[in-house]
UniProtKB/TrEMBL annotation:
<protein>
    <submittedName>
        <fullName>Hydrolase</fullName>
    </submittedName>
</protein>
<dbReference type="InterPro" id="IPR000868">
    <property type="entry name" value="Isochorismatase-like_dom"/>
</dbReference>
<keyword id="KW-0378">Hydrolase</keyword>
<dbReference type="InterPro" id="IPR053152">
    <property type="entry name" value="Hydrolase_YcaC-like"/>
</dbReference>
<dbReference type="Pfam" id="PF00857">
    <property type="entry name" value="Isochorismatase"/>
</dbReference>
<dbReference type="InterPro" id="IPR036380">
    <property type="entry name" value="Isochorismatase-like_sf"/>
</dbReference>
<feature type="domain" description="Isochorismatase-like">
    <location>
        <begin position="15"/>
        <end position="165"/>
    </location>
</feature>
<dbReference type="GO" id="GO:0016787">
    <property type="term" value="F:hydrolase activity"/>
</dbReference>
Length: 206
């Protein structure tokens, strides 16, 4: 099957979290910051729940950009690739090699800010044959116009624009799958789907 038509699974994808740094979070005005944080945590928990490899990178964290937000490291660990100067993470040999080492051609990617930290490596990875899912609601930027322009440019370049819940559902594939119930719990914890999930749990406890 062509890798661009093949759906996401726990075994064919890697999660890349790019520059979700405390100093950069002040730039994120295109969505509610609490909602964005919940989305970032949900995406990270999805990967941890199914055992999907993850690669975290930060841009000059010793400066004003700051460290990676603790909501990510608390879930995925603190093995972080600290870049000395590359704006486009894909131009960092360490980051690119970490992706390559997984042997996976599908990259679930999120970054702050959307129009730089996410868009640049997403387009670069697609140009090298990777199938990239840009998770725009686990990313953030200056305003909605900037986010929209970024989505257009990524789409034109062949990046698949996605949301974290749709990525989770695609990875789950079937409620009866090995990770179905646990992934439903992740969705319930970080979205209003919790009411449906709680109803399901109650119905099945009787």
């Amino acid at each position: 099957m062509n890798k661009f038509a093949e759906t996401l699974t726990p075994d064919n994808a890697v999660l890349a979290m790019i520059d979700h740094q405390t100093g950069l979070l002040v730039s994120c005005r295109d969505q509610d910051p609490h909602l964005m944080t919940a989305n970032i945590k949900g995406l990270s928990m999805m990967a941890k729940t199914v055992g999907m490899p993850s690669v975290i990178t930060a841009s000059m964290p010793e400066g004003p950009n700051g460290p990676i937000m603790p909501e990510i490291t608390d879930i995925l660990g603190d093995n972080i690739i600290n870049r000395a100067g590359e704006i486009n993470a894909w131009k960092s040999p360490e980051f690119r090699h970490a992706i390559e080492a997984t042997g996976r051609k599908k990259i679930i990617m999120a970054g702050i800010v959307t129009d730089v930290c996410l868009m640049f490596p997403a387009i670069s990875a697609v140009a090298e044959g990777y199938d990239v899912y840009a998770v725009v609601d686990a990313s953030g930027t200056w305003n909605s116009a900037v986010a929209e322009a970024s989505i257009h440019r990524m789409t034109q370049a062949g990046v698949k624009v996605a949301t974290w819940a749709s990525v989770l559902a695609e990875v789950m594939d079937d409620w009866r799958s090995e990770h179905g119930l646990a992934l439903g719990g992740v969705l319930g914890e970080h979205t209003s789907y919790r009411w449906v999930y709680n109803s399901f749990l109650q119905a099945n406890s009787q």
